[in-house]
Inverse folding.
């Protein structure tokens, strides 16, 4: 397992339902709608908060986000994915009220953001939210150092405090030595790192990332995913991450919400979505994903045998792809352990090989 993958796996502690174990809710959506068109609130109210495609069409409205409910927990990477036009980017902007939802609640640390005054909302954005979007939006006339320090300048933090903080973040994202460069002098991946550092300057409680790596070349994108997992292993932020790429989602996510036509179809761990898709649409999303990338040791383990000698131990959430290289030369099984180190099962070389060579869609 790579260093980045180890850092990413470190926070993936969940109970049997896929919910993060023992974590409080940072942000929650409750029946959130965003409908574009004249009279949207009135039409939705008359329908008692339940509009279907035909009703929207008849009213000349577009339902960009439809009756969305979910919770993201402290320290969780919650990925929202779907095809272009599914509503995922609109939804993440509703969470911060960059777009005003038509109805519903967005609860951040227990406070309904839709009921918050503009002044309160600005303070929350400045001090508790970090945002990174696909287009880096760096200020071209400012150096890397000043770009990263800019949110602190907006807060009124004096230069004597904001500059050292900006230098710490530049070092954190691996850009030490480039403090005096301008954005035009950086590669795409380096510019994205500046954007990430800038979003972390306010030490946010929640971090919104909307397709942050999709404009990057594949190799740079992989590097940025590694960097993202490394940072999360250090910072343990609550993250809402938007992507249309299922490979990216399964690599990063604790849980995934799949959207279609403005609504959420299914929420679950990557493993749950592959093993138990809610419908054919979800099944299509996961059909071509190699099972070894998704299935965990816990999913394919056998009961532990009393007195069995093990070649070592692995956490239950370890993915098959990650342990394949380790187990291939093991004559004895590995013990599968829970987060307290208790043995909950065992996994053999044959079990791993069956997953690696499986060509059908059934669970091994």
């Amino acid at each position: 397992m790579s260093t980045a993958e180890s850092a990413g796996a470190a926070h993936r502690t969940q109970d049997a339902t896929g919910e993060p174990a023992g974590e409080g809710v940072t942000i929650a959506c409750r029946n959130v709608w965003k409908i574009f068109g004249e009279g949207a609130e009135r039409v939705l109210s008359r329908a008692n908060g339940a509009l279907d495609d035909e009703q929207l069409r008849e009213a000349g409205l577009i339902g960009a986000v439809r009756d969305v409910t979910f919770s993201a927990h402290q320290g969780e990477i919650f990925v929202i994915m779907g095809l272009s036009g599914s509503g995922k980017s609109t939804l993440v902007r509703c969470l911060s009220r960059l777009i005003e939802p038509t109805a519903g609640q967005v609860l951040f640390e227990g406070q309904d953001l839709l009921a918050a005054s503009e002044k309160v909302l600005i303070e929350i954005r400045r001090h508790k939210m970090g945002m990174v979007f696909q287009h880096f939006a760096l200020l071209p006339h400012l150096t890397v150092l000043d770009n990263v320090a800019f949110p602190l300048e907006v807060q009124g933090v004096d230069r004597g405090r904001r500059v050292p903080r900006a230098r710490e973040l530049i070092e954190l994202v691996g850009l030490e030595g480039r403090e005096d460069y301008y954005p035009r002098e950086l590669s795409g991946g380096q510019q994205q790192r500046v954007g990430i550092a800038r979003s972390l300057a306010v030490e946010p409680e929640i971090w919104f990332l909307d397709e942050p790596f999709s404009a990057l070349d594949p190799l740079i994108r992989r590097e940025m995913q590694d960097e993202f997992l490394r940072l999360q292993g250090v910072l343990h932020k609550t993250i809402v991450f938007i992507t249309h790429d299922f490979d990216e989602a399964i690599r990063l996510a604790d849980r995934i919400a799949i959207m279609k036509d403005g609504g959420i179809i299914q929420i679950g761990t990557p493993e749950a979505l592959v093993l138990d898709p809610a419908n054919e649409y979800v099944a299509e999303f996961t059909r071509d994903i190699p099972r070894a990338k998704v299935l965990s040791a816990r999913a394919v383990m056998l009961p532990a045998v009393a007195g069995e000698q093990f070649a070592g131990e692995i956490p239950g959430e370890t993915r098959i792809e990650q342990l394949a290289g380790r187990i291939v030369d093991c004559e004895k099984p590995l013990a599968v352990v829970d987060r307290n180190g208790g043995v909950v099962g065992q996994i053999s070389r044959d079990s791993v090989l069956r997953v690696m060579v499986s060509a059908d869609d059934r669970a091994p």
